[in-house]
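user: At home tonight, take the chain set out below, taking as long as you need, and be ready to discuss the fold:
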Amino acid sequence: MTFDNQPSLDGETLRLHGLREEDREALFNAASDPQTWAGHPAKDRYQRDVFDPYFDMLLASGGTLIVIDRATDQVIG
């Protein structure tokens, strides 16, 4: 038995799936508000030139899930 570190999970309000390249724009949109990062050590991650390398690292890790609001079908995290 192998462990799936990027499962697809469906709940009543949220859907999660493994991060894919095609999620880049939607996740950037969700992360582009500076207030999202206000309490985080990487406060500038809302900027495109900072976000893209971070996204690339997450994608390469193979263990990142993206969160989608089922009511709006929008990426929220």
Q: What stands out?
A: The beta strands are 9-10, 14-18, 65-69, 74-75. The radius of gyration is 13 Å. Residues 9-75 form one domain. The chain has one domain: 9-75.
